[in-house]
Amino acid sequence: MRSVILYAYPPEPDGLSLQGDLLYHGMKENGEEAIPCHISSEFQKEWSYKYFKPDVAIGVGYWGHTPDLILHPQQFGVTPIPWFVADGWIANYHDAISSLPLVLATSTWVKKTYERDGVNTKNFEVVPIGFDLDLFKPISRSDPRVKMVRKMLKIADDELMILTIGGDVTSKGAQEVLKALKHIDKEFKKWKYVCKVWGGDSADDHYDAEMALIEELGEESKDKVIYLEGSLSPDFMPVLLSAADIYAAPSRLEGFGMIQVEAQACGIPVISIDKMGPQETILHGETGFLAKVAETVELTSEIVHPGMGFEEEGRIHFEKPKIFAYRADINELADFLLKLLTNKELREKMGSRGREHALASFEYHKISKKIADLAKERLNLL
């Protein structure tokens, strides 16, 4: 099978790009014929279709990328196979997506979101995102790279590091984690909470609310919250993850949870939310804890615009409210944090089980083979 893999190539330090790059390398290393191409490079995509003559164009993105992932390859007689994530709702391109012989979704929750919003999902298959086991693996706390990270963050040997990573950390549940830390601070004080953000408008939008919650921790504890901003290379991510004792991301909206899988691969226990992608990637009580949903954010309408494939800006009103976000239960988060902070044996046990789980379920060669096998079977390319 000959495949063009459409994603942000050369790879960039973001989830969609890395998802595509691992698929491309997995295909090549598994013996499949594949070439990479940037998702928005019209000229190179056309060249790839005419010169390479692929059987399929496998593209990484969400429904808003339909013009690049689906409509463009169809113009050249190439069968598109989108590998979709989801944001809050599926606003457009329902017919184009529904008519495809094969669509991949990163989780069952993503598939159900497309179905909820009117897409026919009979040809959808759930395929999780892969990770590189040689890159994301446990690194000893005594490793000089890890020791330097903790030293630069001013985390003492007897302090425990909680870590959250995101473009912004509120979307990853940081406000809920801050509230939970306030609950347990009197009982356990030797913690530091590191919030790694990429920055930008989304991070700025939540900054004031995050700072207010940090102030509520009080003079003695507010300095225990540390912010890092900017891009990190994939090679550095396992070093940062291995510096942590707990990875906490009870996300408000999470179609998969790539970093949560990478944290498990590094042997770090994970705390998240019992919904969406994390419900499918974390084994509650084995590789981490999943807090129940306490609240949902529901909308009765949403704005649409030409960038979403509509002729003009307007507002779509829903027949019934749609859930656009979730909030994890603060009391359960506090309980799970305290259990892990006070029990080294439990952290190590969950970390070891997390590594096993990641290897068994998310190794990128296995994921690439599953996608190739599905495409060959569904499109009669055997």
From TrEMBL:
InterPro entries, alphabetically? Glyco_trans_1, Glycosyltransferase_grp1
Against CDD domains, the record matches this protein to: GT4_PimA-like
**GO MF term set:** glycosyltransferase activity
- The entry's protein name is Glycosyl transferase family 1
Q: Which UniProt keywords apply?
A: Transferase
Q: Indicate the segments forming the Glycosyl transferase family domain, all copies.
A: 150-294
